[in-house]
Amino acid sequence: MMLVIYGPTQTGKTNLALQLARKFQGELISADSRQVYKGLDIGSGKVGFSDVVSKHHGYWMVNGVRINGFDLTDPGQQFSAADFLEFAHTTMTQIIRAKKTPIVVGGTGFYIKALIDGISTIGYPRNEDLRQKLDRLPVDRLYRKLKRLDSKRAESMNESDQANPRRLIRAIEIALSNQKAKTTHYQLPTTNYLIIGLTVPNEYLYKKADKWLNDRIDHGLIKEIKTLLETGVDSQWLENLGLEYRWITKYLLGENSYEESLIRLKGDIHSFIRRQKTWFKKFKGIRLFDISGKNYQAPIEKTVSLWYTRENEGREESS
Fold it and tell me: What is the CA radius of gyration of the chain?
């Protein structure tokens, strides 16, 4: 059995998951494409500033609960959906063997979708020579190249993907590959899962996200990114991560004023929230809960409790 908590940024996914983990004997697996990197703590919003944290290789203990998937690799390195699948599969198996409940939590919808359904592009190998050549091209040329090779794939990309060189290069790599695609061999240890989706009107989230950004700036977000640059992390790699790492890097490099970077960053975060919400439609059987109410967690706990009890009773009957 596996519990999944998904929702846009600032819906309180991690706090809810921590609460449920304590009640239902769980461990968390982070499904966030930026939290896998060491040193990207404030910008990726790993935990709250009042949380009690102890850091370990590949996981953190947060308020007494283990969160797997933090600090898996160094900044500047590539970490793909295939890497996430391998890590999540291994970790989930270990959690289940320990007779605990794996709770997958995060805002990277593609990671969660891949974990449940597999991904069709995992059979395509990396082409390092091709990547080195493509790395030299600007984004607009990469997009035009992809459109020539696979117009359907290019036109299906949203605005963010069209501006993301890593995703464009991967799409070109796949389009040029002669190998037949094959789905992932990483199968879920169990097919019994419950997906909880946290939602709320956009304007509500925009205000929360703006406040959270200000809080992170007050707690050292700019210093975190400055330190990454000073320790040799490539500025282009940081910009490719998007959001905080893109616009604060541009500010630190003198490409934008602080005010302009902040305005652009807030706009991108709002757009990101809207894109995250589109994933609700891609998860079959997702149970949506509005977090704007005062006691929104109560019906979620009841839903999880009924599911948890039913699943455990079913396992006892079959054993």
Answer: 20
CA distance 228 to 225: 5
- Conformation bin of residue 138: beta by default, left when phi > 0, alpha when psi is -120 to 50: beta
Whether the Cβ atoms of residue 59 and residue 66 lie closer than 8 Å to each other: yes
List, in order, residues 6 or more apart from 102 with CB less than 8 Å away.
1, 2, 3, 26, 27, 29, 91, 92, 95, 96
Amino acid symbol at 137: L
- The class of domain 2-120+184-318 in CATH terms is alpha beta
Q: How do the domains of the chain map onto residue ranges? A: 2-120+184-318, 128-176
Taking each helix axis from N to C terminus, what angle separates 221-230 and 243-252, rounded to the nearest 10 degrees? 70
Q: Determine contact, residues 282/113, Cβ cutoff 8 Å.
A: yes
Q: In DSSP terms, which residues pair with 194 in a beta bridge?
A: 3
Specify the DSSP class assigned to residue 45.
T
List the end-to-end C-alpha distance of the chain, in Å, as a whole number: 15
Residue 182 identity: K
Q: Do you know the residue count of the chain?
A: 319
pLDDT tens column, 7-52: 999 999 999 999 999 999 999 999 999 999 999 999 999 999 999 9
**CA distance linking residue 272 with residue 217, whole number of Å:** 19
| CA angle in degrees (0–180, nearest 5) for 33-36-39 | 120
